[in-house]
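Bug #77: duplicate submission created two jobs. Keeping one. Sequence:
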Amino acid sequence: MNAASNSEQPAAIDHRCPLCTGEQAQEMHRDRGSASCNPRAYYRCDRCKLIFVPPGHFLSPQAEKAEYDLHQNHSQDLGYRRFLSRLTNPLIDCLQPQSQGLDFGSGPGPTLSVMLEDAGHRVALYDLFYADNAAVFDRQYDFITATEVVEHLRQPRLELERLWRCLRPGGVLGLMTKLSRDDAAFAGWHYKSDRTHICFFSRQTFEWLAARWQANLTILGQDVILLRKEH
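Kept job's structure:
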């Protein structure tokens, strides 16, 4: 059931937004239940407009990894490379030769890093399940990428702030994630049907984040976000 379609407005809940820590959020949608799973509820923060799923609906780490193990992406898949080029092409245009970067959430078959290395850049890898090397966060980088990652984050504020600290002044954080639009579109949105997706960003959310960081924001299409660190 879409709570936003009710004639009575949903009550505010005492639940901190995982991105801005705002305490006012409204339930804006609830999935239909089934015999195999409880319906997920989705809340929208009044401050930063992040849509998030409460922790009670998170998968276990084991179940989450099992979903990622099913991914068949690899560096020689031309279709996957075309998909990633929507980020790599504009990112490369921003970079100096032989820049140093980090691919955050590189996954079981790193590909974006290979594409950037083919362009002459050096890329370190981090992934909670497949390349869990926290030492990468002790360095600074000219660019950091996270493709189809931020929608999975249980603690987006902590993770994104950590990445931002790892960027040198003038560095670029390049993200790919589908942007949420209006409530009617959200109700039928395939992107929210993936139970590993628990955070949904909109243009307004990234505008809030850019203002917080005093960053230069570029949004390309419906899923590519570039944030340049000015200071």
